[in-house]
Design brief:
The protein is an all-alpha fold and 278 residues long. It has one domain (65-277): Orthogonal Bundle (MetI-like fold). It has helices at 4-34, 39-44, 56-64, 67-98, 102-114, 119-132, 139-162, 167-175, 180-191, 193-209, 212-218, 227-232, 242-277.
């Protein structure tokens, strides 16, 4: 049973957690409330509730940002990037774990080191290389960039999870006649479902909301712009359409929030299983 002192400590911790949660939820309040205001009302009192609810903000934002096209671009880039990250990283991690040679250990160390390199330090060389090999101004170039930046963390997560899988399972499959490829696809990959869910959600949140890479790779072609890039069109050099921008932000974050709530059970399970097995 909890003592009075323990109960007091739990209460203080819960109160602090609630306070932190409220602080992080305040920006969502401003976005939601101001997405239904007129431009004049936003400038007059940003924190107040709307005196008149302008649903037209959403319809105008939908048309101006060409939401269906932007949504499909974001969806295609996110889905294909995640599939590529999962397939490439899981196979690479499996090879690095099951064949712990000196070369493989060095390669794994390089992947881990890549996680701490700031993107800004390699941004200019990346753009020069991408322009040289023809990866700019097309969706595939953007997807390749996401594969490169998403692989290190994914390999690190898969590497730790695969180490917890008993090697005897694979050896039994080999004795029964499975090839190395069959062992991975039929035995190992199904066992990676919890960590695959975790990797998928983490990368979906990152890729869907990312602005900088799409801005560098596809900003010059309007038909390839993702939702963050389309939202940026409401912020000009001399004017900022805050009423439409807030509505556009809501149109952009609602799909990924729904995805997160649908998949939150899987990400918690992936973290739990990984912690227990680790």
């Amino acid at each position: 049973m909890l003592t009075k002192r323990s109960k007091k400590g739990v209460f203080v911790l819960e109160a602090f957690t609630i306070l932190v949660a409220v602080v992080f939820l305040i920006p969502f309040y401003f976005v939601i409330v101001n997405s239904f205001k007129s431009f004049k009302d936003i400038l007059t009192n940003t924190a107040a509730l709307p005196t008149t609810w302008f649903i037209e903000n959403y319809t105008r934002a939908w048309e101006i940002m060409k939401y269906p096209s932007a949504f499909m671009n974001s969806l295609i880039v996110t889905v294909l990037s995640i599939l590529g990250i999962i397939l490439i990283s899981s196979m690479a991690a499996y090879r690095l774990v099951r064949y712990p040679t000196i070369v493989n250990k060095i390669i794994f160390t390089l992947f881990i080191a890549a996680m701490i390199i700031p993107f800004q330090s390699i941004m200019i060389p990346l753009m020069k290389v991408a322009n040289t090999i023809g990866l700019l101004n097309n969706t595939w170039g953007l997807i390749v960039a996401y594969l490169g930046f998403g692989a290190p963390l994914a390999i690190f997560l898969f590497h730790g999870f695969i180490k917890s899988i008993p090697k005897e399972i694979e050896e039994s499959a080999i004795v029964d006649g499975c090839s190395a490829y069959s062992v991975f696809w039929l035995i190992v990959l199904p066992l990676l479902k919890p960590i695959i869910a975790t990797v998928s959600i983490l990368n979906a949140l990152w890729i869907w909301n990312d602005f900088l890479l799409p801005f560098l790779f596809v900003n010059s072609r309007q038909e390839l712009r993702t939702i963050p890039l389309s939202t940026y069109s409401f912020f000009g050099e001399y004017t900022k359409q805050w009423d439409l921008a807030m509505a556009a932000l809501m149109l952009g974050i609602v799909p990924i929030i729904l995805f997160f709530f649908l998949m939150q059970k899987q990400i918690v399970e992936g973290v739990r299983v990984g912690a227990v097995k680790g």
